[in-house]
Amino acid sequence: MKSIHTPRYQILIAKHSGMCFGVRQALSTTETLLSEKPATILGQLAHNPSVTSRLSEQGAQNADLTSLSAPTPNVIITAHGAADRDRKRWKSAGYQITDTTCPLVKVAHRKLAQLVSRGYLPVIIGQEGHVEVRGLQGDFPNARVILHPHDIPKIPHVKRIGIISQTTQAIDHVRALIQEVRKQRPEVEVVFYDTVCQPTKDRQNSLIELCTAADLILAIGGKNSNNTAQLARTARKLGCKAHHITQASEIREEWLIGIKKIGLTAGTSTLDSSLHAVAQHLEGLAQRASKSTFSPSSNFAGSTSPPIYPSQDPCHRALQPTQKAATSRD
Predict the structure, then answer these.
(1) Is 253 a catalytic residue?
(2) In the chain, N or C: fewer CB atoms in 10 Å?
(3) CATH code of the domain containing 45
(4) Which of 73, 102, 131 is the last residue of a domain?
């Protein structure tokens, strides 16, 4: 993990944090299209207000996926994906579709289809109403969505259950819930396909390391970002003080009283510059609180442009040479 020293506390940055390769790819594809022609995003490209603002500044229009009405002939499916039937509806209505669905969300769709084709009742572990979950359910209306043990009674009493997960769920939570399903339905054949994405797992594992060193965790990401919320919840379960923030201005100075080490992590839709801004803000608070003229030596000191926090994901490294539009992130 990266470390920044200030006069008051140390700032630790998780090894794996921030925007994943799937969202970077979606952002790059969208920005390239917007540079060529007007386009409408069917929902939020990613659950982050900075990303939404950045695309609006480039002329992006917005419409609801279910509306079948857009102000431009070109429409964009978001990184969270959509049901095949929705794609067909928009195509039949005469719109040109650019699909930015994350490749790992597409894997979840394929796995769900495989389970159904093999005769299993489909079950999705995820957040009811989340756009990714709605997309997964869209082609299989009989799929049941569960998130907690008390949801298990919603599953009909059948002989075979096939389970996948929303890609941004915490894998430990998913595994515990599957065990509970097997405990409550011992007579049922339960098959589970692990569709929690590797970037989510990497960020959760890095958070565990961060929590062993930090007194306070700040998880940076949109308020409707499921994986950012999961990071904050996991940190609290591990015994850390934790806050889910969207931007640096939300930090309260009273949170920092008595804190020696602050851990920073960020969700998979959080721009690198948002993480940079939080670290820089914390440095500024430390400097103002100190009577000394100490000038911290860090990756950020004296820099006029935000540093890059490259993802550790091999897939991102493979994509990086073609991601020209995404290398300057808000």
Answers:
(1) no
(2) N
(3) 3.40.50.11270
(4) 102
* Coarse DSSP helix, strand, coil percentages of the chain, rounded to the nearest 5 percent: 45, 15, 40
At residue 291, the pLDDT reads: 54
SS3 270: coil
End-to-end CA distance of the chain: 22
Q: Are 311 and 18 in contact (CB under 8 A)?
A: yes
Provide the residue range defining the domain that includes 41. Answer: 21-102
Q: Mean pLDDT over residues 135-139, rounded?
A: 94
**∠ CA(224), CA(114), CA(100), 5° rounding?**
40
CB atoms within 10 A of CB 281: 15
How many domains are contained in the chain?
3
14-40 mean pLDDT: 97
Last residue of a domain, one of 192, 210, 227: 192
* Residues 159 and 92 grouped into a single domain: no
Identify the bridge partners of residue 216 per DSSP, sorted by sequence position.
241, 262
- DSSP string covering 88-156, please? HHHHHTTPEEEE---HHHHHHHHHHHHHHHTTPEEEEES-TT-HHHHHHHHT-TT-EEE-SGGGGGGS-
* pLDDT for 313 beyond 70: no
Residues 288-316 have a mean pLDDT of 46
Question: Tokens representing 19?
Answer: 């925007």
Active-site annotation holder among 57, 132, 187, 254? 132
Neighbours of 224 (CB within 10 A): 16
Give tens-digit pLDDT for 256-276.
999 999 999 999 999 999 999
For the cut 50, the answer to whether the pLDDT of residue 112 exceeds it is yes
- The mean predicted confidence, pLDDT, of the chain is 89
